[in-house]
């Protein structure tokens, strides 16, 4: 398995994985495709011989980055893929001059919160009622580094 920048051949699989992981809140294939043309965007996939096992998407404005999406196929969770995606993303962001990564996570998503805490993210805020189906608060987490 390799971590690599998302390319056109990954789009359909990323969109399918979005549906598996996020259901009705999933980004469309078209929305994901437009990210390849967005100079602010960086999406990385975990590619296992042509099969996308996970991905992370981000957008950077000036020197600050927001993680838009992250997902790992349910059959491949707990194998370090999410950690690898975030580590690879941060390495790429440093090269682009970003100094931080911010994300939202469901308040009830204990596995994700534990992963982010282990990786040095800290809670910096809360967005009440941010998520739908079910309605739930988002915790805003942030990790900073020096370039």
Low-confidence stretches: none
Strand order of the largest sheet: 1-2-3-4-5-7-6
What is the overall shape?
globular
Terminal CA distance reads 28 Å
**Rg, please?**
15 Å
**In terms of structural class, how would the helical and strand content be classed?**
alpha+beta
Secondary-structure element sequence? Answer: EHHEEEHEHEE
Specify the biggest β-sheet: 7 strands, mixed
Mean pLDDT: 96
Helix % is 25-40%
The total of beta strands comes to 7
Number of helices: 4
Structure description:
The protein has 147 residues and is α+β, with helices and mostly antiparallel strands. The protein has four helices and seven strands. The chain has helices at residues 11-22, 29-35, 81-95, 110-118; strands at 2-5, 41-48, 51-61, 64-72, 100-106, 122-131, 136-144. The chain has a seven-stranded mixed β-sheet with strand order 1-2-3-4-5-7-6. The longest helix is centred in the middle third of the chain and has 15 residues, at 81-95. The two termini are 28 Å apart.
């Amino acid at each position: 398995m390799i971590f690599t920048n998302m390319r056109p051949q990954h789009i359909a699989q990323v969109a399918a994985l979005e549906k598996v992981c996020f259901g009705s809140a999933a980004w469309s294939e078209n929305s994901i495709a437009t990210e390849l043309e967005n100079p602010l965007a960086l999406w990385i996939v975990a590619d296992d011989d042509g099969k996308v096992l996970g991905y992370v998407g981000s957008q950077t404005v000036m020197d600050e980055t927001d993680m838009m999406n992250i997902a790992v196929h349910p059959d491949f969770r707990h194998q370090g893929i999410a950690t690898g995606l975030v580590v690879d993303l941060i390495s790429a962001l440093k090269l682009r001059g970003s100094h931080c990564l911010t994300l939202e996570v469901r308040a009830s998503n204990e596995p994700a919160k534990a992963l982010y805490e282990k990786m040095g993210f800290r809670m910096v805020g809360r967005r009440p009622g941010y998520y739908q189906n079910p309605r739930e608060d988002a915790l805003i987490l942030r990790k900073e580094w020096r370039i």
